[in-house]
Amino acid sequence: MATQVYRYRNCLSQALRGVIVPSEAITCGSVNCSDENHIRAINVYADHVTEACIAAGVGPPFPRSAIPKAVIQGLRGIVLDIVSYCV
To answer: Which of 7, 20, 26, 31 is the most exposed place for a label (fewest CB within 10 A)?
Structure first.
């Protein structure tokens, strides 16, 4: 189990290196920001982080096609919640 966690952590770290943090949207001072560019940037960021989490855990014997769409949507929701909390 520890080896699997170590492998996942390394794969995730590698996958997240290519994810660009939308610093302008994250550092926006508006509590109820409605800037469409900021909203779009955060949604793209959440999609990329979600995809990195999934990609890090996919591989034999767990192909991506085995992951239910509901799980992917749930993970994306968690990522969005974390991003929203940190902003």
So the answer is: 31
Entry pTM: 0.77
pLDDT grade, residue 1 (50/70/90)? Answer: low
CA distance 1 to 17: 25
| Best CA proximity match to 46, nearest among 14, 25, 72, 77 | 77
74 Cβ neighbours under 8 A, 6+ residues apart: none
**What is the C-alpha to C-alpha distance for residues 5 and 52, in angstroms, rounded to an integer?**
15
Does residue 86 carry a pLDDT above 70? no
pLDDT beyond 60 at 57:
yes
First-last CA distance in the chain: 34
The tally of domains found in the chain comes to 1
